[in-house]
Amino acid sequence: MSGDLSKKLAYDETFDCIQCGSCLPACPTYKTMGTETQSPRGRINLVKMAAEGKIEIDKLQEPIDLCLGCRACETVCPTNVQYGRILESAKEALREKEEASASPVKKFEENLFYNQVFPKRHVMNTIGRLLWFYQRSGLKTVFHKTGMNHWLPEHLETFEQAVPDISGPGYRHHRPSRLYPDQKPIYKIGFFRGCIMDALFDRINDQSMRLLAAAGCEVVAVEGQACCGALHEHGGRTGQARELAKHNIEAFERESFDYIVNNAGGCGAMLNEYPHLFQDDRAWQERADRFVRKSVDISVVLAKLKLPFKKTIRQRVTFQPSCHMTNVQKVTEEPRALIRKIKGIDFRELDDPDFCCGSAGIYNVVNFDESMKILDVKMVDVKDKNPDLIVTTNPGCLLQMKVGIEREGLSDRVKAVHLIELLAEACDLE
Amino acid sequence: MQAEADQQLLKIVHDRKRILSQEEDLVSYGYDASFGFYRPDLVVQATSSEEVAGVLKLANRFKIPVTPRGQASSLSGGPLPVKGGIVLDVSQWNQKLVIDSEDLVAVVSPGVVTAQIDKAAAKYGLMYPPDPSSSRVSTIAGNLAENSGGPRCLKYGVTKDYVIGLEVVTPQGEIIRTGGRTVKNVTGYDLTKLIVGSEGTLGVITEATLRLMPRPPASRTIMIIFDRFVDSGKMVSKILTSGILPAKVEMMDQASIRAVEAYRPLGLPTDAEAILLVALDGHPAAIDDESDKIKEVAKATGARSVSIARSDEEARKLWKARKLVSPAIVRSKPTKISEDATVPRSKIPEFCARLQEIKKKYHIDLVVFGHAGDGNLHPNIICDKRNKEEMKVVEKAVEAIFRAALDLGGTLSGEHGIGTMKSAYMPWEFSPESLDMMKRIKNAWDPNNILNPSKIFPVPGQRLVLSE
């Protein structure tokens, strides 16, 4: 093994692990796969042994690839092991090793995905338009009626069914980027759109801005913002994540905001960890610190304000929290408090809400089978609560819960929604 | 021979996925929560008594070492495959958890997590009292093998007090039953109690019948703050001789108080030398009476203050301080050597004083907290196992702790077990004749010494080594 790669590993951090095993019951992959190798304690030990040269770095590949990165282990860890850092360091080392030997075609594809698609808003918008065209042109219907969609790999078809109706280019062009409240603004909010949220769930983004305005805020969807960089960081591409972070920090420095608000648990977690990207760069780290002090999930701001509730919603509601919102942002109370504020709601907490749904960024696409096993565990808990609505706070979780509903044959009576959609309905925004 | 053994193994365990032989799997079953790393040659995840019997028959025939393992939260090295061979993992055999509310028993498979038993019992208004700090992770098989304790054991006793029947597979691969389903049972030798605490050296536990108790209707938490450490030790003795038996009496010394305050400020007094947390449980009227008595005793012992939690929420806040000790004390250095030497209750104040002397003599970072009520203090040494010089001093300090406990009529281990960590000191506690009697029992059960070898018994000249 190359000595340089082992130096990439977060070796010192592994010593914080006292191997007590407290993380085992919290780990979804330990539950579904049942081996120590697929547990946080096991993965930390493997990273440590690879760093010491006792095992080849290749031995990390499968256990690290199969980790969801949900970081539930960090929340239960009695000694505050920085598992996220250990995991990202292993991913980066593995990716560098792979890159050294990858074929030109694979490199081209990955470059397209990470460098050309996610960072760029106009590209994501184009994807949004193509999806809209696919849905509106009748191609979707043709695909389904002829059964041609079965030619697609199983997992693509699964997700295709879960993708919402995409709004058309006309709508996309006419979205306001600045909203004012009726009275003097309570807060001035910089709104972070996120790339997946904006491509697939742009309506939820618009509802978010309107809810904030209705609650008395001035809201600005800052121009020039980019993808948060989470997919890059979790894919071992720290360099690209750093560039995106700089881009976003600069964009939100152009105006003075009380809060920088996002509505995607995964993005919010990445935004919160921006300072980690600039360990060797004091100036940028300070700018990142200033950014993070203002960056919060939308539920945190909405919970401080008075929302203009109008409707009673008589439904049984359960809540699937975003892992990164719980374990990284540490936001757990606000979404629940907001749900409970809505009149008529019968709120039913899951037995194990902190168990990941298996979405985990692009995990459900890359590791479909393992992801579905985790989702099946989640759906047992969901079905037990017999809800009309499953509320989520992250686009990945939202799509995954839609897939879960589909797989369980519950689509006639259960719906998955983003918290914002539920609040918007209760406030009669649409 | 190896090939033949492998072939036969496949006939015993049909699901190939439960036989692990990849490098990344093998190195994942070479550690526990104590010290040391040993790579096994194979891991078998057993889920039936027949599989365990088959594996042991095979291992006995080919003289392959077998180390039973739950979820490896052991602090004594119990599940370490010191001689390689097969790690027999029972953690995935967690399907059976039956509560019989009429017989007041639970029947469980070995991989069931301890806390799940108490949780299941609670649905019937019952409880399974043993509550090791690791109960959310530890398997019942591990608890049985090590005879684990916990805070609540002050009042309710340890694991062995709740086991009335076992199914065990012997090293020859025979499936035997011990005890039964009755509270009273004096028929024959009590093999149940022999197996419990035998650290997986005599047999592999494949099923257990556990006694349950009625769940107490109420509980209350009291925090007592002391200016002088020694007074806290006196207070423990006084509570226990005043006719009250609390469910838990937990102690934090000044080092732990300061560590917690530096880590997550809770408003604890950093100038206090000790804090006692007392939990009472039982009938609400009895608890009222006992709380008053504890207040009086505290005043007479010179406690600075006594506060009683008015609600569950307040009680949780008080216990939070105790829970934060572990994470708080490892912030300065990464390694925590957690000892569980135990002394008779009357010697608690003296043991406390001896520990402070050891701390000064060796200039070690020693933090004392734990189950003061049953004499099972946990002196923890905070160090860095990468620093060889430091670890040599720590080894000496650990020996001094053992020596002090034994001088005071105590024992090497209250609840963690001997395993690899304390085996070197067995001759300090037992005469050659006593140790030999234990060895003869081991030989009778396991003449080929295949089951969890290199545990409990020292090899001549063995010493504790903590540096890697």
Describe the protein's architecture and organization.
- Chain A has 430 residues and is an alpha/beta fold.
- Chain A folds into four domains: 99 residues, Fumarate Reductase Iron-sulfur Protein, Chain B, domain 2; 48 residues, no CATH class; 134 residues, Rossmann fold, CATH 3.40.50; 111 residues.
- Chain A has 25 helices and nine strands.
- In chain A, the strands form two sheets. Chain A has a five-stranded mixed beta sheet with strand order 1-3-2-4-5. A four-stranded parallel beta sheet of chain A has the order 7-6-8-9, with helices on both faces.
- In chain A, helix 24 links the parallel strand 8 and strand 9.
- Chain B has four domains: 87 residues, Uridine Diphospho-n-acetylenolpyruvylglucosamine Reductase, domain 2; 118 residues, 2-Layer Sandwich (Uridine Diphospho-n-acetylenolpyruvylglucosamine Reductase, domain 3), CATH 3.30.465; 110 residues, 2-Layer Sandwich (Alpha-Beta Plaits), CATH 3.30.70; 74 residues, 2-Layer Sandwich (Alpha-Beta Plaits).
- Chain B is 35% helix and 20% strand.
- Chain B contains 15 helices and 18 strands.
- In chain B, strands 15-12-14-13-17-18-16 form a seven-stranded antiparallel beta sheet, with helices on both faces. In chain B, strands 5-6-10-8-9 form a five-stranded antiparallel beta sheet.
- In chain B, a hairpin with a 5-residue loop joins strand 8 and strand 9.
- In chain B, helix 1 runs antiparallel to helix 3, helix 8 runs antiparallel to helix 12 and helix 12 packs antiparallel against helix 13.
- The two termini of chain B are 33 Å apart.
- The model of chain B has no long low-confidence stretch (mean pLDDT 94).
- Chains A and B meet through helix 4 of A and helix 2 and helix 11 of B.
